[in-house]
Amino acid sequence: MTQEPVQTQDIERPSKELIAKFDGISSATAAGELSRMGIKNPFIQGPTAWTPGKTVVGPALTLQFMPKREDLYPDQEYTDPEIQLHRHVLYHTQPGDIVVVDARGELSSGVFGEMMLTYFMGKGGIGAVIDGCIRDSANAKELGIGLWLKGVTPNFHTQTVQFPFAVNVPIACGGTLVMPGDIIVADDDGAVSVPIAMAEELAEHASEHAEWEEFSREKLEAGGDLRRYYPLKDEARPEYEEWKKAHGK
Fold it and tell me: What is 16-194's CATH number, 3.30.830.10, 3.50.30.40, 3.40.50.1820, 3.30.390.10?
């Protein structure tokens, strides 16, 4: 029987102008502001930074894994690479994209290896957030993309108990809902998923927050009063406004 070609959908990406507004906004600031806006826990728990110092912001391509079931995933399927949906999510890659994978926290399955991640990097991908593992980790870390992982393994993606099931669908990565096209903010503290409908408002609030924190940090380093400068009290606002003028903000 002839296998039908695999068809998967692309995501709707935010504008480059919107992504640029997140410059300098940390995952901690994004998570805190989202909490104040009503999204209490946007943190993708489980994956941690495997490329220290790397910060990425971009739209989410999503990949969902499921437990193997023989009627849906016969062992011989691995002989036809084009059936493998973990390839197809990467086919959609555009510059600035981040791939986010619900790999069920599974530690015995390497979602991607060096070659797949090299392709992703070559297409302009900037980061991978995986509630699970990759393999070829030493070489993968040299590619220059950001990696947030639960672990590493020598096993390939379908070697043990799961298989890639769906591309660019809503997923639960680390127990957090990630919609295709949501903006991911990831740094050494971890990865946060920003609902696209809230991104403009978040960027506005978070930029202001980042600015006064920079001012407050300078004051605290100089021995300033914690009660006055963190959080920034109203009586310190005139100092803050003068500081902004002096720094062209």
Answer: 3.50.30.40
